[in-house]
Specification:
This is Enoyl-[acyl-carrier protein] reductase II. With 353 residues, this protein is an alpha/beta fold. Helix content is 44%, strand content 13%. Helix 7 links the parallel strand 5 and strand 6. The longest helix is centred in the last third of the chain and has 20 residues. The structure holds flavin mononucleotide.
Length: 353
Amino acid sequence: MTDILTAAAPAVSASSFGEKRLAARMERGARFLGSEVAIMAGAMSWVSERHLVSAMSNAGGFGVIACGAMTPALLDAEITATKAMTDKPFGVNLITMHPDLTALIEVCATHEVGHVVLAGGLPPKGSLEAIKASGAKAICFAPTLALGKKLVRSGVDALVIEGMEAGGHIGPVSTSVLAQEMLPELAEAVPVFVAGGIGRGEAIAGYLDMGAAGVQLGTRFVCASESIAHANFKKAFIRASARDAVASVQLDPRLPVIPVRALKNAGGELFTARQREVAQALDEGSVAMVEAQLQIEHYWAGALRRAVIDGDVEHGSVMAGQSVGMVTKEEPIAEIIATLMAEAAQAFEKRAG
Ligand SMILES: Cc1cc2nc3c(=O)[nH]c(=O)nc-3n(C[C@H](O)[C@H](O)[C@H](O)COP(=O)(O)O)c2cc1C
């Protein structure tokens, strides 16, 4: 940790109170992850592949592969490639509604992946048990306090609580409220990682002081030099401010829209127009309900890939959290970690003064 701190933060001496307090507050989370610092780079579909994940873990943090819609064979190849680039621990994020979830868990087990994160809903029956039987630690998202307690009773090893400031699919409650509701009740039982809207180390220090074992950031890492995101995607992040990262809006109660936070663009406006058209078609009886709902559900299919990989930031989905305004340049991930750690250490230092 000393190396990371001193690399970018001459203002905090290696033995400062702030640095020691930070190390102490992160100790449990770092031990759980097997990393130097208790900062996870949350899995981001198309972005969190071998390059970003290995760079994150090599920098002392904890990288997580986003499996997304990958087949078991593709995940197998991605884990193999990541292992070739780092000998540090990293995790794999699996989406619970993936039709091959069991096979994906087996792939992780074969590779002896140490941490499996289940995202996108509560873990289906048997999945937690399968992960734990492989010797891996199971990490789940807790959307509410009641479900967090239930997950702890089911044997989950750690929890992530993620507020609506985050990029990607979001719930309805802010990080600050979730942290106040959940940390006092859950943080003793299992390590809890706080996510959503974290752009600077002062916020990390705050959540650690509230009982978090560590934090998870996504948006802040998209413009890492090691990230393979298209130059247009990175440019859009660097230009954007917090208010450009908006949640998708559902126009009609008959046509459910899963809220996603992304940068405003033409694709978002067309989506609103499309919802209006489909709702009108429903009113006129020219389309059946199931077909109408599918049209809305499928509207964004492939849209994140179009933005991240192809660079179509006008019509693709530029998923980004509200912390995007704090992303100001492309820089190596080790520097991002060093900056966050220095800010957090200085925050602890100030509080002591
Ligand atoms: C471009 C992008 C893609 C994401 N994809 C996923 C995903 O595939 N699975 C997942 O669990 N979370 C996903 N997330 C959420 C991140 O893992 C992380 O929890 C979130 O970014 C943290 O909030 P922040 O963006 O405010 O830092 C994504 C976030 C972004 C910005």
